[in-house]
Design a protein that fits this description.
Layout: H1 23-37, E1 50-55, H2 67-85, E2 89-91, E3 95-96, H3 101-110, H4 114-131, E4 142-143, H5 147-162, E5 166-176, E6 181-183, E7 188-189, E8 192-193, E9 201-210, H6 216-221, E10 227-228, H7 230-240, E11 242-251, E12 266-271, E13 282-285, H8 292-295, H9 301-313, H10 316-321, E14 330-337, E15 344-349, E16 361-364, H11 370-379, E17 387-389, E18 418-420, H12 431-443, E19 448-454, E20 459-460, E21 462-463, E22 473-476, E23 480-483, H13 513-516, E24 517-519, E25 526-529, E26 533-534, H14 536-539, H15 543-546, H16 559-565, E27 570-574, H17 580-594, E28 606-610, E29 612-615, E30 618-619, H18 630-637, H19 639-648, E31 655-658, H20 664-685, H21 699-717, H22 721-735, H23 744-754, H24 759-768, H25 775-778, H26 786-789, E32 793-800, E33 803-811, H27 816-825, H28 827-833, E34 838-844, E35 848-853
Helix pairs in contact: 1-24, 18-19, 19-20, 20-23, 21-22, 21-23, 22-23, 23-24
The chain binds one RNA strand of 87 nucleotides through helix 7, strand 12, strand 16, helix 11 and strand 31.
RNA sequence: GCCGGAGUGGCGGAAUUGGCAGACGCGCCGGACUCAAAAUCCGGUGGGCUUCGGCCCUUGAGGGUUCGAGUCCCUCCUCCGGCACCA
């Protein structure tokens, strides 16, 4: 069927032919039309110019679609619709990130099962998303909790496991006593649980990790060429945290420690400042460092033990609180040799050294490191300066034996203009170069190696929870951890009446013998299933690969489809996912590429982060009570006006301030646009009726139109929706100036230009103007004529000493003497030129003329 | 502390990247329509002086570069986001 196509002859009770704009009627009609006609479901196999327009899929919360989601989706949708009008075959899917602790906690709170809550939430989301007028292909949605989906999430695990990129290891983890689960480092905010704010503790658990660190350098390098928001790239660079330095080996001093410590034992440290090794006057190990026992002397054993226990039992909050305060620590009684000077230095342990980074040991250089300095002061350890600014060393001084003005702190700046002092044969050298030479020199005795270190940790994917895809592994006494064969996937998550987490660290699934017991796939012997489930970030790490292939149940993604549609053409999402989701997605894509499953290694060709929406200057939150319910606004103003306002209230990529009063502007604009089209069509049918209706040759208007086409096109491409809308408003004001009746030729392109932003009314008006539905299939993006942008006369501001005094109208490209003459003759200008001498005249053609006088 | 981003009318925000600051919108004021109100339409709207010709000031603060700075440089302040004893 065709949509309702109104004509001038139709009875006035027809919804579209009424003389005033009724958003609800228009929106319902077109949403229905899109559905029935499959307007938004492209034929994925026949597309000539495939364009994958992706938006970050939401977590389907019980509260319904958050306005923040809608803000993001609208921004993405506009871009997709724009590309479609420009001739691309746009695929714009949506899905639901429904697994995870969020859903589970909510289910626990309301005392219902997530398996029954999620479908209801999804239905509600879908309703709201449809009402928002997104160009969603509803035939290809993804739900991460569907076994048909997570079968492939598990498949992904199996592939990585096969490739040796998944390993199980005992690791100290962040344990949230309230959520009863481990948390990833990134889910710990300042020592507290990201979700419940409880203080996080340390616990040792055996867990599965993906070796993302093996990809650290590539993940970093590719950032140089992918087209992403700069801020997002910066965030990833910081997160990966590459630092260049050296691994230095400090031999354990003879006769130290217990009987196990042979003469060959060394303690390794990582440092970014090998140039300062001559100043290392002590060493500090993390309390949990494995070499602590063998370095500890009998006399200090008790003190060391109690300090270690204290550190182990201490939660992260307590550790943070002490930052900046006194640096505690105890002497182990053991010594190591400073490899540069051969001198014995004492080995201490302190909780300011963390096991997680580098080697878990640092050389204490109190002269040039703030933390080491504080520690040395605290514990009476010697401070030795080995670097100082070149300017501080007098000409006649010997840098091998020079005492700089110590001041009362450590000298920690690291500038190019520094030299080594008190560093034997390296003294006097620039610090950077000296550092390299020291590493080479120590390297000859195998005491140093250049090394690059990353802050990035391996990705822990185990969760001791219920609501996630089970890790597809069977532990066998004989064969070890065996991945579930692909043909046995999915390992279905059983329905558990009681899915609460336990305090023991064991997953809820461990309570189900029927689930736990399984035969080893390799030897057939008795085995036990892994009972942890996988991190939600794994679900979202590959969902974009699934969208084009949702109908295939024998493979996660079809090769031809993937080749045609990926990598993603445009991905828009929030900054809160700058690091984790985007980094994990990149890692998984890279790994799949290396394993031969994908022919590209970066999943998102273009990524743009959107800004944060706030309300009346304040962050939107339930506790503030300033939550925006999209439904209410859509009902009152219509989805089009709401969409338009969301995009108008500020620059999309920076966010903006939502104010209720603001909606009136876009709503008025749409009413005015409607009236303009009605007036234009009426005038075109009765040419004699009005004098102004016939015009299509008004040159000023023609220029304005072509300028508008140019501007809107450029602004939409750059996601500068607010200024695109402003330009459209400005144009409509012109066209309607003092009640003028516009021509059809003046308004038809405008309708197309705003269609990405306000799709429903655009469809309606397009038909009203005689176009064939859908506008997105048939209108095409208008072209502008560069020649029509030109003007022959232009106003040029005239300044005297940089102050604006007048403007003169001249021909474009006019010569300086002509403009100067005209400008100088102007009374407002000449007044200021009297009695002064013109020293210089600055003339920028078509821009400005400035008389410099005194 | 470190890394990002931002400070412009009563408010949300523009400004071709060094060239008429305040586009567009909200709000407000005045007018039209109306018995009246709402809606709608038209006009005005940064601040201060004004002899009504104009003049001066103004983009967080202070300096600088330049004929000319919201835009570039230096110092500082404030707010937002992220990271945080990373060796």
């Amino acid at each position: 069927m065709t949509p309702h196509v109104p004509t001038a002859n139709e009875p006035s009770d027809s919804p579209a032919s009424g003389s005033s704009y009724d958003p609800e009627a228009v929106e319902v009609r077109w949403q229905q039309y899109w559905d029935e006609r499959g307007t938004n479901s492209p034929d994925l196999d026949a597309a000539r110019r495939p364009f994958f327009n992706l938006m970050m899929y939401p977590y389907p919360s019980a509260e319904g679609l958050h306005v923040g989601n809608l803000y993001a989706f609208t921004g993405a949708d506009i871009y997709g619709r724009f590309r479609r009008l420009k001739g691309d075959d746009v695929f714009e899917p949506i899905g639901y990130d429904a697994f995870g602790i969020h859903s589970e906690n909510h289910a626990l709170k309301v005392g219902r099962h997530p398996m029954e809550l999620i479908p209801a939430n999804i239905r509600n989301f879908e309703r709201m998303l449809r009402a928002a007028g997104l160009m969603t292909d509803w035939t290809r949605t993804v739900d991460t909790t569907d076994p048909g989906y997570y079968k492939w999430t598990q498949w992904l695990f199996v592939q990585l496991h096969k490739a040796g990129l998944a390993e199980k290891k005992e690791a100290p983890v962040n344990w949230c006593p309230s959520c009863q689960t481990v948390l990833a480092n990134e889910q710990v905010i300042a020592g507290r649980c990201e979700r419940c704010d409880a203080a996080v503790e340390q616990q040792e658990l055996s867990q599965w990790f993906f070796k993302i660190t093996e990809y650290a350098q590539r993940l970093l390098d590719n950032l140089d060429w992918i087209d992403w928001s700069e801020t997002t790239k910066t965030a990833q660079r910081n997160w990966i945290g590459r630092s260049e330095g050296a691994r230095l080996r400090f031999p354990v001093s003879a006769g130290q420690g217990g009987e196990g410590a042979g003469d060959l034992a060394t303690v390794e440290v990582f440092t970014t400042r090998p140039d300062t090794v001559f100043g290392a006057s002590f060493m500090v190990l993390a309390p949990e460092h494995p070499m602590v026992p063998e370095l500890t002397a009998p006399a200090t054993r008790d003190a060391v033990e109690s300090y270690r226990q204290g550190a182990a039992g201490m939660d992260l909050v307590e550790r943070k609180k002490r930052e900046g305060a006194a640096k505690t620590g105890v002497f182990t009684g053991g010594h190591v040799q400073n490899p540069a000077i051969g001198e014995d230095i004492p080995v201490w342990i302190s909780d300011y050294v963390i096991m997680d980074y580098g080697t878990g040991a640092v050389m204490g250089v109190p002269g040039h490191d703030q933390r080491d300095f504080e520690f040395a002061v605290q514990h009476g350890l010697p401070v030795r300066a080995v670097v100082c600014p070149r300017a501080q060393v007098p000409e006649d001084a010997d840098p091998r034996d020079f005492l700089p003005d110590a001041g009362d702190g450590a000298f920690i700046e690291h500038t190019p203009d520094e030299v080594l002092i008190n560093s034997s044969q390296f003294s006097g050298m620039p610090a950077d170069d000296g550092g390299r030479r020291i590493v080479a020199w120590l390297g000859e005795r195998d005491l140093a190696t250049p090394e690059v270190n990353f802050r990035l940790h391996d990705w822990c994917i185990s969760r001791q929870r219920y609501w996630g895809p089970p890790i597809p592994v069977i532990n066998c006494g004989a064969c070890g951890a065996v991945a579930v064969p692909e043909e046995d996937l999915p390992v279905e998550l059983p329905y558990l009446e009681d899915f609460r987490p336990t305090a023991s660290g064991a997953s809820p699934l461990a309570r189900v013998p029927g689930f736990r017991e399984a035969a080893c796939p390799r030897c057939g012997g008795p085995g036990e299933r892994e009972t942890d489930v996988m991190d939600t970030f794994l679900d979202s790490g590959w969902y974009f690969l699934r969208y084009p292939s949702t109908e295939f149940d024998d493979k996660p993604f079809d090769a031809a489809r993937t080749a045609a549609w990926l990598p993603v053409g445009s991905y828009i999402g929030g900054e809160e996912h700058s690091v984790l989701h985007l980094l994990y997605s990149r890692f998984l894509t890279m790994a799949l590429h290396d394993l031969g499953h994908l022919d590209f290694e970066e999943p998102f060709a273009r990524f743009r982060k959107h800004g944060l929406l706030i309300k009346e200057g304040a962050k939107i939150s339930k506790s503030r009570g300033n939550v925006i319910l999209p439904d209410e606004y859509v009902t009152e103003f219509g989805a089009d006006a709401f969409r338009m306002y969301l995009m108008f209230l500020g620059p999309f990529q920076q966010g903006g301030d939502f104010r209720d009063e603001g909606l009136a502007g876009p709503r008025r604009f749409l009413g005015k646009l409607w009236d303009s089209v009605v007036a234009a069509t009426a005038a075109s049918e009765t040419p004699a009726a009005t004098g102004s209706g016939k015009n299509s040759l008004d040159p000023g208007m023609d220029r304005a139109l072509h300028l508008l086409i140019k501007q809107v096109g450029e602004h939409l491409e750059e996601l500068r929706y607010n200024t695109a809308i402003a330009a459209a408003m400005d144009y409509l004001n012109r066209v309607r100036y003092k009640g003028r009746t516009p021509s059809v030729e003046e308004v038809r392109p405008l309708v197309v230009l705003v269609a990405p932003i306000v799709p429903h009314i655009a469809e309606e008006l397009w038909v009203m103007l005689g176009g064939e539905a859908s506008i997105f299939d048939n209108a095409g993006w208008p072209d502008y004529d560069e020649a029509k942008l030109a003007v022959n006369r232009i106003q040029v501001p005239v300044q005297v000493n940089g102050k604006l005094r007048a403007t003169v109208t001249v021909a474009t490209g006019a010569a300086q003497d002509q403009v100067q003459e005209l400008a100088a003759a102007n009374a407002a200008v000449s007044r200021h030129l009297e009695g002064v001498e013109i020293r210089k005249v600055i003339y920028v053609p078509d821009r400005l003329i400035n008389f410099v006088a005194n």
